[in-house]
Design a protein that fits this description.
The chain is mainly α and 176 residues long. The chain has one domain. Helix content is 64%, strand content 5%. The protein has a two-stranded antiparallel sheet with strand order 1-2.
Amino acid sequence: MLTERDLTEIERAHPQGLSSAQIIGICQARGLRLSEATFRKYVQLGLLPRSRRVGSKGKHRGSHGVYPCATVRRINGIKHLMAQSLTIEQIQSRLAGFKQRIESVETALDELLEAFERELIRPQLDLSVRREVSRDVHAVRRTAADLMRQLIQIEGRVTLTDQQGHGAQTGAFAER
């Protein structure tokens, strides 16, 4: 299992997220067994968040999937709970409560910011106001992305410890 220090280091090194290949590589390099098939299975079962598509710079470069940096923490927690003999179904049940709330917060923030952006194209809006509001919306999007990363990290620390507190003993889920 990864220690809290390992997890914090990974999250600080990759605040913008990681590709699935990077996540698998990090886990394998640190002794956590994880195949691409297992990673995909965890995503399909809702144990891990889905990736967001990020465009690559350059002509015809396409996009690639980026997972939140807290995904490594989540995998570590899943592996820990499985070592404690919890089933995938029990782990899914434990994760469901906060996940839905976090997703609804993210959806609400996205919808609100998109509504502000739609207002920016109104011809009645003064150009200087439009620029100022556009900058503010952009700043709020960055803040919202940070908030979502923090919520996912908190959720991982809260939901992925076993009920007897064994996770805290390993250091994998200790409070920062």
